[in-house]
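With this grant's support, we have settled on a layout for protein records. One resulting record is reproduced below.
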Amino acid sequence: MIKKIIDKLLGKRGTQPVFGKRREIGASEHGIDPSLVDRRAVDVVQTLQEAGYEAYIVGGAVRDLLLGLRPKDFDVATDATPEQVKGLFRRAFIIGRRFRIVHVVYGRGREHEVIEVSTFRAYMDHAAAEQVAGNERTSKSELVGMKHAVDSSGRVLRDNVWGPQDEDAARRDFTVNAMYYDPATQIVVDYHSGFKDAGKRVLRMIGDPATRYREDPVRIIRAVRFAAKLSGLGFKLEIQTAKPIKESRALLADVPQSRLFDEMLKLLQTGHALATVEQLQKLGLARGIYPLLDLVVERAAGPFVQAALEDTDRRVGEGKPVAPSFLLACVLWSDVREGWAQRQKKQHAHPALQDAIDDVFNARIGDVSGRGKLAADMREIWMMQPRFDKRVGSAPFGLVDQPRFRAGFDFMRLRADTGEVEEVLADWWEDFSLANDELRRDMVDQIREEQSRQRARAPLRRAAPRDEAVADDASPVGHVSADEGSSAPKKRRRRRRSGARKPGDGAPDMQA
């Protein structure tokens, strides 16, 4: 305490960085195409400016605009407080406790768009923050009214002290993500040579990298994510930024598992999952960030997981939604399949699969995901797989109407693409899912007739002499009597069409 008082009297501010010198870059120099800027982001900036506040588009959107790309997301930074921002927009919501920000919402349903608005934050020395004994959950009453607080491990629980723009820029991670763009004047504001680094395709940490990683170890993961995302454009981590990463990896042990889980999902769902695996291996982080991520890296070279990663990247590139449940179901499928096979030696197929899934959740995921929707979706994808083998009776009609059918089918299609199941099965289900009701009934009837012929031929093959068996194999129909080959199957078909189903209809459960 005495040292802090002395430092304050001497004008020292702990580990305060150099805030940089403001540089304004005009349109003729930066060359940003205004048509690439989302009109809703422009509307937010304009509304704030007309109310007398400073406001800019900020972060990765500015970087992408400088590169001639159309950003997917737009963030706005302003000197207005969250309450002041909320008061200017009809549909605006203050969210977050640790970092209070405002979501300004445009549109409704799936077409809605969110512009995230943050207030300029002061650069704070976390060593001077208020401390609480517990964590975010156990210290809620203590945290009421606090603007800058850390828990016993040093994790920042509250960081809502507003400040000037230059300090806000110093808080950001990389120079290329710390620029501000005013769509009204078309000026880019740069404090840390981000414009120059963007031109040189360099990812450089603001301030001393080792210090910044200690302040927030998750910056290690962010470095990997941005290096992977921008590698296709020629970006590389600056040497001094990359050098401390491997040694700083141990700092991640103090980060809550739930946060690491969320950061892992970001790594795998930005459309650069394969590049992320490459960067993790390159930076010596193939192991040690998060156990499930270690498994992804370990299995990425396998045909099935590699196909899943490629499919995820493709969908993101095409602007299609991706679900973490699908990718994680692919990564853990070999564990489920092996456990299922072992359990079927003592159990029936269905309960064996359920128990195998429980074993995998306990061993690989634990309670981090909360066993909520993500786990439920994974379970549904896995439990659906043996149902694809049943293509007679009412089973196909019921399966195709399941809400998660498409995810289950896409999973099965990947299995077919990598040789785990026959492609003809995947092709049949794709045709069935796109067919009308009449064609679907015809497809089911055809499968039922094929299975009836197979059952009729089977006992004859077992009883026939060797020469007759050879003749039977050579014949397209087989040696089947009129009663066996015509009358009996017709009677079975009539019974099934009338609604009566015999036990055992359909193919046996999938053998994993």
Q: What stands out?
A: The longest helix spans residues 437-463.
